[in-house]
């Protein structure tokens, strides 16, 4: 059983929940940027949460199912058609053998997830089928004409299930924890981060979301020796413009991290198009945790 | 020991130097193996060890011994690797000048040093090897090369390293090896995991 990719769209990659546990060897976590959306798609398709699906950036995918299969589409809402008939996101979809699936361009947000019962069964690399755009591990990005194997059905798809697929908010609030290197910045820089608005820059990819806005000024000069990085770390390079690390982030980095976006807000950030307004707020729990 | 929070589920532990990092890394991985510490990632670096994927950081803060750097854990017998190297790198003469010696002198110093993998990063399987004395630390090149071939043995700052895959790089190139540094068929896939003791041997 397979999924024949007629048109891959702007940027489509195979993603599961990544390869955690190998950062000490320099292997990035990788995995779906909007991990919650992939989990939901897998649940709808009858898969375990970590099965591999397609991460379709800005839509434009056309694929043919070689056999009858159940699939589900989640993430930011995009026009879907199965055999040229409109279909809904967030529901299990029965696809007859030979039918063509079209996923159009989302009106808002960036990433649509497609899961198929049985999962995309490309060979795993270090326990994961994710394409890691930083280190080049995992499958190549999906191209026109690719034939992606689909695994044996893991379980029958759920009878009735639904996942909410809402377009991302036009302005995003991200909860940010101070540190670990907030002391490398002026007190003013922290106030600026929380008070001023930022926007997602066009230089945004699976490695990180670059922001534009008021520069964050350092309280001290010099170089920070490389240190381990977490998902959602807000690194501030010399130009003072923050960069928030997403799934393909490097395992270590040498620019100071002023704060960390709460991991539960990272999925929403992964859907933010260039130009999206970002505001940072302090999580209530962070005040006590120092 | 000084530990800092890095978000709701991570702790960055600061240590005085690379030997303390190695000791703390051994201690923390030992605690995890014995089920006394839950962490998805334990990431050593130049002056820090990051614990990430920690369900209850406040509990770990209390659990950590005051001095991690003395390594009260039971250190595993370190893995030892010898890397056969052909010393014909493009920057060999520059390094010789920086060290006030000649090519043979660079080779003698590099093969005479017992290195240790302090940490990995930059690319899967790229290991930062410590062991050279301060006298033999070298600056990075003023402008990085666009492509350094896989297997290139190089120096920068206090470190020596071997490029596991072809990539851009600003280190001083002194030689090359045919060893495979990162092999997906191996477990672990990195030849040089943190804590590994490394010697280079001249291959003629």
Automatic annotation (TrEMBL), chain A:
Pfam families on file: CT_A_B
GO molecular function, one term: hydrolase activity
Key words of the record: ATP-binding, Hydrolase, Nucleotide-binding
SMART domains, alphabetized: AHS2
Domain Carboxyltransferase: 24-290
Claim: S-adenosyl-L-methionine is one of the keywords in the record: no
InterPro entries per the UniProt record, alphabetical: CT_A_B, Cyclophilin-like_dom_sf, PxpC
NCBIfam families per the UniProt record, alphabetical: urea_amlyse_rel (TIGR00724)
Designated name of the protein: Biotin-dependent carboxylase-like uncharacterized protein
UniProtKB/TrEMBL annotation, chain B:
SUPFAM superfamilies reported in the protein's UniProt record: Cyclophilin-like
Sorted UniProt keywords: ATP-binding, Hydrolase, Nucleotide-binding, Protein kinase inhibitor
SMART domains the UniProt entry points to: AHS1
Keyword Transferase in record: no
Keyword Nucleotide-binding set for record: yes
Source superkingdom: Bacteria
GO molecular function (one): protein kinase inhibitor activity
Residue intervals passing through the bilayer: none
Ranges of residues in domain Carboxyltransferase: 1-192
Gene3D superfamilies: 3.30.1360.40, Cyclophilin-like
Annotated protein name in UniProt: KipI family sensor histidine kinase inhibitor
Provenance organism: Catenuloplanes indicus
